[in-house]
Amino acid sequence: MWFFSKASTPINLGAELVVELHNHVLPGVDDGAQTMQEALQMMFFWAEMGYQKVIATPHQNTFMNASEIQLDAAEHRLRAQLQEQEIPIFLTAAAEYLVEPELQGRLPSLRTFGPKRYVLIELGFWASPVGWESLMFQLYQIGYTPVLAHPERYTFADRQTLKSWYERGYFLQVNLLSLARAYGKEAQQKAEYLLEKGWVHFLGSDMHHSGQIALVRQALAHRLVRRQISSLLNPTLL
What we know:
Elements: H1 14-17, E1 19-20, H2 36-48, E2 53-56, E3 59-60, H3 68-84, E4 90-93, E5 96-98, E6 118-122, H4 132-141, E7 145-149, H5 159-167, E8 171-175, H6 176-179, H7 185-197, E9 202-204, H8 213-220, H9 223-228
Parallel strand pairs: 1-2, 2-4, 3-5, 5-6, 6-7, 7-8, 8-9
């Protein structure tokens, strides 16, 4: 059983974000948590920070492609452990999809989250994928609402590109880890720029393992998170 100490816990912006929506907490299905113990450490942290719900988003691409049965089994095992350990947080699962040719064949059955059938979409980090904007339009046409994962991490996306994505109506999800400079100065600066402009729809951690907990805790105290938290859509996913 896990115990919470209010005296040792800082002001918890997780209680205002309510929902953590980008992470790799399901054990043993991708490059995220590899053991149940590590997954529970991550879940305990989110509960301690005041979150009420965690939406797991395991990678789904040609390199990491656990089956639906494997994903469901991992989700159910972790949820059972949350109940057994009395960690007061709800777990559900969607996925993070990489834009690649193979994605076309999966479009009828993507894992979504939230009331608008949001689907988390990842672009390549070094170059814009061919035809990705046509794919975004196609997703809208068949009833999904695509969310661009961590746009601040794409090296090909400068500030003008980020502005154009927001003006086109794309939903943007920024990583808390970017704000803690986990991916370098450039990603941090772009994440801060997006927050300053008010162009961020969702904040997620993108946490892969318990060793990143301290960085996520640091990012939750970032001045721009505190300033913009009321404009974020995370609570609508509860």
